[in-house]
Amino acid sequence: MPSIHLRGQTPETLARAFPGLDLTLARRVVRRLVGEDGSDLEGVRGLARARAAEILDGGRLARLGIVDRRRSALDPFVKYLFRTPDGLLLETVRIPLEKPRWSVCVSSQVGCGLGCRFCETGRMGFRRNLETWEMVEQVLTVRRESPERPLTGVVFQGQGEPLQNYDNVIQAARVLRDPCGPRIGADRITLSTVGLVPQIRRYTDEGHPYRLVLSLTSAFSEKRETLVPLTARHDVSELAAAMRRHAAARGGPVHVAWVLIAGFNTGADEARELARLFRGVALRVSVIDVNDPTEVYARATDDERTRFLSALSDSGISFVRRYSGGADIHAACGMLASRIGGGEIHSPGPPAMEAP
Q1: Domain boundaries, the chain
Q2: What is the pLDDT of residues 53-86, one digit of tens each?
C-alpha cells in the first residue's frame, strides 16, 4: 500500500493511520505540517523522536512544483502553474476580494472529462483526479507567498468537476477547515458542480456545511445540452429538484452560477424559466461573463447584460454580478488549461516573519 500524504490528513484520519497515536498529538502534528506549513516534526511538544520518525517514515511530504506564476497587469489576480510529482500540470488562481483578503480557486482534477463546449479545461480531456494533499497544497502555496493579506476563502472551481473526485475533495475541505489547518470557515468554502445528481444527493444526505453551487448556463434542457453534454444524463428539471432538496435540507438558498454568453442565455425567457423551476425557493444567481480564448462564445454587450439582469429582477430573482478578473493571464472562469503567458512574472517576497 502506498504511504499516506501527511498534508492530506485531519487529526482524526492521521490518528487512525497510526494506531496508538494520541489525538492530541495528532492535532499538534497537523498543526505543524498543515497549519504552520512545516516540513519536519522537530520540537513538536510531547511527540517522542521515535514516534515522529515513525510518522515521517510512514507518510509523504512531497510538494507541488511551481512551474510559473503570472500576475495580471489589470488587477491583483495571480495564476500558478504547478507540476505534480508524476509530471502533470495544473493551475490555481489567487483571487483578490473586496476587503483586503485572498480567496483561492482550486483545481480538483488534471483536465476534465465532461467536455463543456465553452470551457477551456473541458477541451483538455481528463488525466486523473488530484489527491487530497495536492488540493491542500495549492492553498498552502498561495497563503505562503501572499502574507500581506489573510487567506479566507477557497473555491473548488478550477480544473475539473469536484463531484467526480468526491471523496478527495470532501477530505480536502475538511483539512482546510480544521482548526489545526488553515482554518477556512465552512461558509467560505465553495464546491461548484456542473450537475452530477447522484453526488448532489449524497452531498445533501451527508450534511456537509460547505456551499454548493450549480453551474447551470441555461434553464432549458435542450439548449443546455448543446454546451453541457452531461445534460443528456441529468436534465434541468432533475438538477433543479436535486438543488431544491439540498436547499430544503440545509435551510439556505439555491446557489446557481450563470456563465453569460452573448445571444445564447441572455433572454428574459431564461429568467422566467428559472423563476418557474425554483418557485417557492430562495434563489441566488451569480452572473459571470464567458471567457473563451477561441472566441467562439462571445461576451454579452453591456446592453444585453443589463437587460438580462433586469429580467432576473423582474422575475424576483436575487443576483450578483461576479467580476471576471485576470483575463490577460487566462485566469478567469473556464480558462484554466495549463497554459503559460500573459501578465508579468510574479516573484513573491519572503513570507512575513511573526513578531517575537
Answers
A1: 4-60, 65-345
A2: 999 999 999 999 999 999 888 788 999 999 999 9
The answer to whether residues 182 and 10 touch, using CB atoms and an 8 Å cutoff, is no
| pLDDT tens, residue by residue, 151-186 | 999 999 999 999 999 999 999 999 999 999 999 999
Q: Rounded to whole angstroms, how far apart are CA atoms 313 and 324?
A: 21
Residue range 65-345, CATH number: 3.20.20.70
Q: What positions carry a catalytic annotation?
A: 91, 333
Question: What residues does 60 pair with on adjacent strands?
Answer: 5
Helices vs. strands in the chain: H and E counts, helices first: 10, 15
- The answer to whether the CB of 219 falls within 8 A of the CB of 277 is yes
Name residue, grid cell 440545509.
Answer: 250
| Residues sharing a CB contact under 8 Å with residue 343, sequence separation 6 or more, in sequence order | 70, 71, 72, 73, 79, 326, 328, 329
Orientation of helix 197-206 relative to helix 166-177, angle to 10°: 40
